[in-house]
Amino acid sequence: MVPPKSTQQQQARKTQIVVVGGGAGGLELVRKLGAKYGRKRHDIILVDQNLSHIWKPLLHEVAAGSLDANLDEVGYRGHCARWGYRFFQGSLESIDREAKSIRLAPVLDDHGEELIGGHTIRYDILVLAVGSISNDFGVPGVAEHCLYLDSREQADRFRTKLLNQCLRVSRAMIANPAADERVRVAIVGAGATGVELAAELYNAAGALKHYGLEVFDETRLDVTIVEAGPRILPALPEELSHAARGELNKLGVVVRENTQVILARKGALVTQTGDVIAAELMVWAAGVKGAEFLSGLGLATNPRNQILVTATLQTVTDPDIFAIGDCASYTPPDQDAPVPPRAQAAHQMASTVFTNIHRKQKGKKLKNFTYEDKGSLISLSRFSTVGSLMGNLVGGALAVEGRMARLIYTTLYRLHLLGIHGWFRGIGLMVIGRVNRVVRPKLKLH
Questions:
Q1: Strand 396-401, strand 384-391: pairing
Q2: At what angle do helices 238-251 and 192-207 cross, to 10 degrees?
Q3: Could you say which residues of the chain have pLDDT below 70?
Q4: How far is it, in rounded angstroms, from Cα 346 to Cα 437?
Q5: If you ran DSSP here, which 8-state letter would residue 301 be given?
Q6: Among 57, 316, 400, 446, which is least packed, fewest CB within 10 Å?
Q7: What structural domains does the chain harbor?
């Protein structure tokens, strides 16, 4: 049904703000925009290739089976109905800056048949918040033989392969109790993702014996972390890095620092010294970059495909286009390196762009973005939590470990819930989440 001409003209007069990417920054931004402007004179649109959102720092728990993503994901269609914006499923294909429109690629179903045709969406203000992907640094064989943890689908894929391998080992041990069967996992990259995944795997393996794999436990798990740098967790102070390494060693994780992977092949990684690290499951978590398509949008990018932005988070190419989160690159005037690709940076950028969108429409001077490093926290599953707090939280820098660190780590996720749901619904979801962790199975095995 074609709407009346007067309705079309009314819609055309609306200020259309389009946000591409429903990650931590993008989803929080459209919630704030929808809550402030509603649909009377503004049309707030979120575009994402997926139908739901899950907080990326939780993907290692999804991969290990410790977290059921179905309980923690946020469906965009339900969320948009509550907060007054519209959602379109699709992937960004191109930007026509002269016509002020974006082109979305067709959406295909599981059989490759077209579900939603490619189409165009106009914008008055465009915000790119498409996140990042793993950076394989051109190492041969990585794309073919390694797994990534960039999305819910990739985390689910890893969990399926992990459970299948655990089942194979369990059956082999039942058939031959004397057999020395192992599940071998190699993780390239000792940042937060790699270290947290390693610890979570031991937590999950220890629980499998209660879920039908009676002869399998964590003693049958071999995990190796391969790090090209001199130590794990380089974002943390050295003493905390050493503390985390000690906890990993207690679990049985083999940590190989100053080791560069030059080749990935089926069932093994090859290092620069010629050593071969055998593993049935290989995870690449050695850094991030912007997706390849970002460099083809006609916007200025850096060698990692990240979009270059000004102090106001507008792209250096077009003031009507903003970029936030991992896909954006901004180097503060007093710094030598860009703002790091972290969830806290995306959150802070979303707040600045929300303010600047309002100021831009009022013709006011835009606010410069100031990154405040709140520190880093690393969860080693139920075994330990380490990290450092910085800036306004403690008036300096403070190393934290144990229960205090775990409490603060949990609080960060709760703040994320409040950011995307608001106070009332956010607190309600916290309560529900707590109940689910008590009554639901400890592992997701399907």
A1: antiparallel
A2: 30
A3: 1-12, 69, 71, 209-214, 375-377, 381-446
A4: 28
A5: B
A6: 446
A7: 11-132+290-362 (3.50.50.60), 142-286 (3.50.50.60), 375-439 (no CATH)
